[in-house]
UniProtKB/TrEMBL annotation:
Domain of life: Eukaryota
PANTHER family in alphabetical order: CYTOCHROME C OXIDASE SUBUNIT 6C (PTHR48416)
CDD domains: CcO_VIc
Bilayer topology term: Single-pass membrane protein
Subunit structure, interactors included: Component of the cytochrome c oxidase (complex IV, CIV), a multisubunit enzyme composed of 14 subunits. The complex is composed of a catalytic core of 3 subunits MT-CO1, MT-CO2 and MT-CO3, encoded in the mitochondrial DNA, and 11 supernumerary subunits COX4I, COX5A, COX5B, COX6A, COX6B, COX6C, COX7A, COX7B, COX7C, COX8 and NDUFA4, which are encoded in the nuclear genome.
Designated name of the protein: Cytochrome c oxidase subunit 6C
Pathway(s) annotated for this protein in UniProt: Energy metabolism; oxidative phosphorylation
InterPro entries, alphabetized: Cytochrome_c_oxidase_VIc, Cytochrome_c_oxidase_VIc/VIIs, Cytochrome_c_oxidase_VIc_sf
Function: Component of the cytochrome c oxidase, the last enzyme in the mitochondrial electron transport chain which drives oxidative phosphorylation. The respiratory chain contains 3 multisubunit complexes succinate dehydrogenase (complex II, CII), ubiquinol-cytochrome c oxidoreductase (cytochrome b-c1 complex, complex III, CIII) and cytochrome c oxidase (complex IV, CIV), that cooperate to transfer electrons derived from NADH and succinate to molecular oxygen, creating an electrochemical gradient over the inner membrane that drives transmembrane transport and the ATP synthase.
Biological process per Gene Ontology, one example term: mitochondrial electron transport, cytochrome c to oxygen
Organism of derivation: Dromas ardeola
Length: 67
């Protein structure tokens, strides 16, 4: 029974560290990287003036009335 708490704490500390590193890696490669690629692909062909003119024609803006 001697040093039971220290031994179990060491085990759980290492376990928690490896689980957290695994979750961080899963999030980075499963969520963040695909999202980054999707944004890059979207903005590769994005024309903000065309989008502005479409919103202007729809009457979204009060300061820029539709033509």
């Amino acid at each position: 029974m001697r040093r039971l708490l220290a031994r179990r704490m060491k085990f759980h500390l290492f376990g928690a560290f490896f689980v957290s590193v695994g979750c961080a890696a899963l999030y980075k490669f499963g969520v963040a990287e695909p999202r980054k690629r999707a944004y890059a692909e979207f903005y590769k062909n994005y024309d903000p003036m065309k989008d502005f003119e479409a919103m202007r024609a729809a009457g979204v803006f009060e300061s820029a009335p539709p033509k």
